[in-house]
Amino acid sequence: MTAPDEHPLTGPGLDYGPANDADGTRVVRAGLPADEPYEPPLPGPVFAAHYHLPDDAALDGYVYGRDANPTWSRLERALAELETPGDPDTEVISFSSGMGAISAVLLSRLRPGDVAVLPADGYNLLAALRTRLEEHGVRVRTAPTAADAQLAELSGAKLLWLETPCNPSLDVCDIARLADAAHAEGALVAVDNTLATPLGQRPLHLGADLSVASGTKGLTGHGDVLLGYVACRDPELAGSVRAWRKTVGAIPGPMETWLAHRSLATLELRARRQAGNALALAEALTARPEVRDVRHPGLPGDPAHATAVRQMTRYGCLVSFTLPDRAHAERFLAALRLVGQATSFGGVRSTAERRARWGGDEVPEGFIRLSAGVEDAADLVTDVRHALDVAAGG
């Protein structure tokens, strides 16, 4: 019989309570209000442009729809619980898209003459944002993600932007090492954590000042929401990002934030299945002679694996690889049955695309980025092998 002060799963002397819940439990309850009789666990979206304000009302509550919304607040609390479990000081600011969140950090923190260090191989819209920063007088330096190459560009920097794993090449950098070096220069450190999600990597725990992500991808996982967010522990930083959101109006809709919050309950299940499927696909692809440069941080032989093991708990849904040429890649994509052609990633349905069709990414014409969904792993591997056979036959 279990003693009164002993939890059957943790044993005597060990803590039992929300702070010690595993991720699979935490995502189910994150951001939910206290239970109310006859009320749903997750209240529906609040549609409001304005709120009732009697003359003596305090103005630190819900005042206007561009400032705050109860539906946003619940999602932001949930994301804060996932980014830094047990830390009540973490604040999250949600945005209408991942680019809204990225732009808010870079444009609110950088001034003419400041130096920003960006990845040379990050998300392709960073190039457009780099142009905008330079038009505003910001000096931008870039370096690849691999081998922590951004270290060499930190002298005099005001802000270091990391993306790890980077998209689409899936290189990984050492967040803690780079954050220490950047802080020694007096620079802020922001990490794009879109691919890993907070269940795969927690940048704030690794020394970053800001964790930024698109909620459009794996976080929500159903391909039906555009969303972004910024997480940080510093009230001044949070305030500047929140003020930028208000000024430019990059606010999320209540329906989008409600859908995102609803989707969090399955995040751990989805992330675990997707990571397993991605690894199975990567292993199958390495056995094919016509396939080159298979990349997935979970592969023991991947150049990024050693660093990924130190800072990640899951290695994500993406696999990249290169087929001999454009025509070969297009035959492969056309022959897939279970894997759809789409430019996003992180969804429950597997997708793939030939990245060179968009331009901007320095990848070969036959480069494929494949996002593993939650289908049966054996079925996905069979589908990919069949498509490779068809493509190889011309």
What does this structure look like?
This protein is an alpha/beta fold and about 400 residues long. The chain has three domains: about 1-30, no CATH class; about 30-265, Type I PLP-dependent aspartate aminotransferase-like (Major domain) (Aspartate Aminotransferase, domain 2), CATH 3.40.640; about 270-390, Aspartate Aminotransferase, domain 1 (Alpha-Beta Complex). It has eleven helices and twelve strands. The strands form two sheets. Strands 1-7-6-5-4-2-3 form a seven-stranded mixed sheet, with helices on both faces. Strands 8-9-12-11-10 form a five-stranded mixed sheet, with helices on one face. Strand 2, helix 4 (about 125-135) and strand 3 (about 140-145) form a beta-alpha-beta unit. Helix 2 runs parallel beside helix 7. It is globular, with a radius of gyration of 22 Å. The termini are far apart. This is Putative cystathionine gamma-lyase. Belongs to the trans-sulfuration enzymes family. GO terms for molecular function: cystathionine gamma-lyase activity; pyridoxal phosphate binding.
